[in-house]
Task: inverse folding
């Protein structure tokens, strides 16, 4: 038992690795997570709107994209984007392995966030669309000003959960062989573990992940509870005539 404690929970080695875990690992993990989430939200909202479109030519590509990227293992997508593209001579980000990792996770997040948005949009009462159309709004204007804003407010908890999932999946970028300065939390811990022959730095990496995920998990629970209690989810008022024409 003493050997296990020494191998996994050596406080000296955890404290030794902690500054690098926070300075480099935490910074890059947040850059990766935020960057991938931004890509996922922007592209995911577009895919969600395509997915609820009345036009089959729009719905089908969205369905295919979502099925592919939700069906593939994340590590496979990361390898294809982060290792495959540069090998094929496609280097939009030069030699930055971190940027390719952000793109890969962003493409994966797009599929999941699209489904989150789609569910949120379709959860809005159909009467909202009917009321908007009855006052002369076009379908697209009603979606933009009435339906989509309400749908987005309803999906804040699952969006936050997706950000947590992206943060944890950022550890898979170690397969890209990120160099010093671009390493995320796990890669920093892994490098320290290899140098010391001890797993305590990886345990330290886990503690830093928990520093991010536990507060966010509490936030998800709070948002979910507020939504279930009916707070902040009242129907949006229909826009004024000036907003409709503006």
Result:
């Amino acid at each position: 038992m003493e050997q296990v404690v020494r191998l996994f929970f050596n406080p000296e080695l955890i404290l030794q690795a902690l500054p690098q875990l926070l300075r480099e690992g935490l910074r890059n993990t947040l850059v990766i997570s935020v960057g991938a989430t931004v890509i996922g939200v922007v592209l995911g909202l577009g895919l969600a709107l395509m997915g609820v479109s009345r036009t089959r030519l729009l719905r089908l590509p969205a369905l295919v994209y979502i099925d592919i990227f939700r069906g593939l293992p994340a590590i496979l997508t990361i390898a294809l984007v982060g290792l495959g593209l540069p090998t094929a001579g496609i280097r939009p980000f030069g030699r930055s392995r971190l940027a390719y990792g952000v793109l890969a996770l962003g493409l994966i997040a797009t599929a999941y966030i699209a489904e989150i948005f789609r569910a949120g949009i379709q959860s809005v009462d159909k009467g909202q669309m009917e009321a908007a159309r009855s006052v002369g709004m076009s379908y697209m204007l009603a979606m933009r000003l009435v339906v989509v804003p309400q749908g987005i407010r309803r999906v804040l908890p699952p969006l936050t959960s997706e950000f947590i999932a992206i943060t944890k999946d950022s550890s898979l970028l170690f397969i890209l062989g990120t160099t010093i300065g671009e390493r995320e939390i796990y890669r920093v811990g892994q490098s320290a573990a290899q140098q010391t022959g001890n797993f305590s730095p990886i345990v330290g990496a886990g503690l830093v992940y928990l520093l991010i995920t536990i507060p966010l998990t509490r936030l998800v629970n709070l948002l979910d509870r507020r939504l279930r209690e009916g707070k902040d989810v009242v129907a949006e008022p229909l826009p004024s005539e000036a907003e409709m024409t503006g």
User: Anything to note?
Assistant: The domain at 2-245 is CATH 1.10.3720.10 (MetI-like fold).
